[in-house]
């Protein structure tokens, strides 16, 4: 099952799962978009991750990306990297239905000015998948990416993936971000992607994403991924 904790859609979910051992990947993106919003000021990002599966359903991994959204919001912030760590358990309810539960920590190392609300966040997540359809919910155990009083926020997403013509993949996604607290604003993001498997374990993906907020623009971006 390809359930994903979400940042970039990213840490979990960019890897195919099953069996025992570790999986690695690195990719270059024309933009790093998470839940509909650019994390790099619409500039390219370099990303990579590794995941270990114990063979009994338990897994753990780490994922990282270049970012700029924190320093873009305040030049006194030095953080230019996101480092995620996650762990969980995957299993099957039947031959056709799989599930995934776990937790992820989003970390943004760097120096911050006094009084700055740091974006480090813990989320717990649970997902289910059948016949290419997926449904997943993430619950914020801490303030959500630096928004004061936003612990208890949630992100609900539905997805569909279709492999066709041998090497092509169509992906559809819609997500609803619920933000707790007096300053939070709920919103919906949508994404359509088309992927192509290339020789030597490379993959190319073109994606379009949109958010139903006036201040957010729709955007397209491309990713090139290498699995090891």
Which CATH architecture? Answer: Beta Barrel
- Give the overall form: globular
**Overall strand count:** 14
Write down the Rg. Answer: 17 Å
The overall pLDDT, averaged over residues, is: 91
Tell me the CATH superfamily.
monomeric porin ompg
Q: What's the CATH topology name? A: Porin
Distance between the termini: 19 Å
Please estimate the helix content.
under 10%
Q: Strand arrangement, largest sheet?
A: 1-4-5-6-7-8-9-10-11-12-13-14
**Percentage of residues in strands:** over 45%
Q: Can you tell me the CATH class?
A: Mainly Beta
Low-pLDDT ranges: 1-18
User: Number of folding domains?
Assistant: 1
Counting DSSP H or I runs of 4 or more residues, the number of helices is 1
Q: Give helix and strand order, one letter per element, not per position.
A: EEEEEHEEEEEEEEE
Largest sheet: 12 strands, antiparallel, barrel
Q: Which structural category fits the helices and strands? A: mainly beta
Write up this protein.
By secondary structure, this protein is mainly beta. Strand 10 (154-164) and strand 11 form a beta hairpin. It has a single domain (20-227), classed as Porin (Beta Barrel). Helix content is 2%, strand content 56%. The protein starts with 19 loop residues before the first strand and ends with a strand. Strands 1-4-5-6-7-8-9-10-11-12-13-14 form a twelve-stranded antiparallel barrel. A two-stranded antiparallel sheet has the order 2-3. This is TorF family putative porin.
């Amino acid at each position: 099952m390809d359930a994903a904790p979400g940042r970039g859609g990213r840490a979990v979910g960019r890897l195919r799962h099953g069996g025992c051992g570790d999986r690695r990947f690195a990719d270059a993106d024309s933009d790093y978009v998470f839940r509909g919003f650019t994390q790099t000021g619409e500039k390219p990002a370099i990303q990579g991750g590794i995941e270990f599966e114990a063979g009994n359903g338990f897994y753990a991994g780490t994922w990282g990306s270049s970012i700029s959204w924190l320093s873009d919001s305040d030049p006194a912030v030095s953080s230019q990297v996101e480092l995620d760590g996650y762990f969980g358990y995957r299993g099957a309810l039947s031959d056709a239905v799989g599930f995934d539960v776990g937790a992820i920590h989003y970390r943004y190392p760097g120096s911050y000015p006094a009084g700055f609300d740091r974006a480090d966040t813990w989320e717990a997540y649970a997902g289910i998948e059948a016949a290419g359809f997926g449904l997943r919910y993430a619950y914020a155990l801490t303030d959500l990416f630096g928004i004061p009083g936003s612990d208890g926020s949630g992100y609900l997403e539905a997805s569909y993936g279709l492999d066709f013509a041998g090497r092509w993949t169509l992906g559809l996604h819609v997500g609803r971000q619920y933000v707790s607290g007096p300053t939070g604003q709920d919103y919906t993001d949508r994404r359509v992607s088309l992927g192509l498997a290339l020789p030597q374990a490379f993959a190319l993906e073109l994606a379009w994403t949109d958010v139903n907020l006036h201040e957010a623009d729709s955007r397209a971006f491309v990713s090139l991924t290498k699995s090891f």
